[in-house]
Design goal:
Elements: E1 32-33, H1 34-40, H2 46-54, E2 58-60, E3 63-64, E4 71-72, E5 78-80, E6 83-84, E7 93-98, E8 127-129, E9 137-143, H3 146-153, E10 161-168, H4 173-181, E11 183-185, E12 188-190, E13 194-201, E14 204-211, H5 218-225, E15 229-238, E16 241-242, E17 251-253, H6 256-262
Parallel strand pairs: 9-15
Antiparallel strand pairs: 1-4, 2-3, 2-5, 5-6, 7-9, 7-17, 8-9, 10-14, 10-15, 11-12, 13-14, 15-16
Helix pairs in contact: 1-2
Length: 330
């Protein structure tokens, strides 16, 4: 008896042959992704580093790469803009009072003055946590670690941003109700903001606004949607960090212990002891000598209160700008 021939197997039923793993991803335990290494070196956030790689600004072992799908180790020679990467340091952070008139970019296509051109020369390469537009002022966090930047900008981190806002108009509780409920502007959804009406001074009113997002011109656009025009915007806190007594243009490093606590890095290796960096009196500077700006405490609390929590999800302290709200600039 002859064996029956098996029917041919259709191409759709055949199992595809397993693809040979790419050399860069065959073993994730060997080294780290190139974008992560660049971020740890303080070049930029991971996402920005990927764009820089695609632009051909990164060389590995003498070869320009154009894809972030590559793992590297300490044995690899990495150049960014033809210069070696700095040795990775423990994450460090600084408080900076951004003055009006500076843009929060490394390079500006319009030739405007930038934050990074006005930092002290002896500060390492840093990136900003979030941004403030050219007409806004106040607290801007700086870090030497792109991964820290990425972590603190995520909405899931839950850190609130508090602003003192001067608007032209006479807002009432009814005026501010839509902002507190959340708005949709040009198809973009804005999460509810905490808004308090502090005082009316002539044609202007002072508000305190707290939000947990970081969308472009979020406060200004929300106020315009309810008929108010912002003519001064000052960020006074970002999570547990306060503007405190910093003056425009001043920079102050956050103590390493505080950085480890707030980022949940209890076992991180402490950084060397550093002295405070300040911008001398000049175009955007002021006289050195301001007191430390990290105060801790509850939102709206007074300087000197205890920190409200150690995790990024905890409630952060607030703060107030120096001088009386609504006082005129001389």
């Amino acid at each position: 008896m002859t064996d029956k021939k098996r029917p041919p197997v259709s191409k759709s039923a055949r199992k595809p042959a397993p693809k040979k793993p790419d050399a860069a991803t065959a073993d994730p335990s060997k080294g780290d992704r190139i974008a992560k290494v660049l971020a740890r070196a303080g070049v930029a956030s991971r996402r920005e580093a990927e764009r820089m790689i695609e632009a051909g600004r990164v060389t590995v072992n003498g070869k320009v790469i154009d894809s972030p799908a590559l793992n590297v180790t300490a044995k690899d020679t990495i150049l960014f803009d033809e210069a070696p990467l700095a040795e990775p340091e423990p994450p460090r952070m600084w408080l900076y009072y951004k003055p009006i008139g500076l843009v929060t970019t490394e390079r500006d296509e319009k030739g405007r003055d930038t934050v990074f051109k006005n930092l002290p020369d002896d500060l390492p390469r840093v990136v900003s946590v979030g941004r403030l537009d050219i007409n806004s002022e106040g607290l801007l966090l700086l870090t030497n670690d792109g991964e820290v930047k990425r972590k603190l900008e995520l909405p899931s981190t839950g850190w609130s941003r508090k602003y003192r806002v001067r608007v032209n108009g006479r807002p009432t509780e009814d005026t501010l109700a839509p902002v507190r409920k959340g708005l949709t502007i040009d198809g973009e959804r804005f999460q509810p903001m905490a808004v308090s009406l502090d005082r009316q001074q002539g044609a202007n009113a002072w508000l305190t606004v707290t939000l947990r997002e970081g969308k472009n011109r979020e406060v200004r656009r929300a106020m315009e949607a309810v008929g108010l025009t912002v003519n001064r915007l000052l960020r006074v806190s970002y999570g547990p960090f306060q503007l405190g007594e910093l003056k425009p243009g001043e920079v102050e490093e956050i103590r390493q212990r505080v950085v480890r606590d707030q980022l949940g890095m209890e076992d991180a290796k402490p950084a060397p002891v550093r002295t405070r960096k300040e911008i001398p009196r000049g175009k955007h500077g002021s006289k050195p000598g301001a007191k430390p700006a990290f105060k801790g405490g509850r939102p709206g609390g007074k300087p000197g209160q205890r920190p409200a929590g150690k995790g990024p999800g905890g409630k952060g302290p607030g703060g107030k700008p120096q001088g009386r709200p609504g006082s005129r600039n001389k």
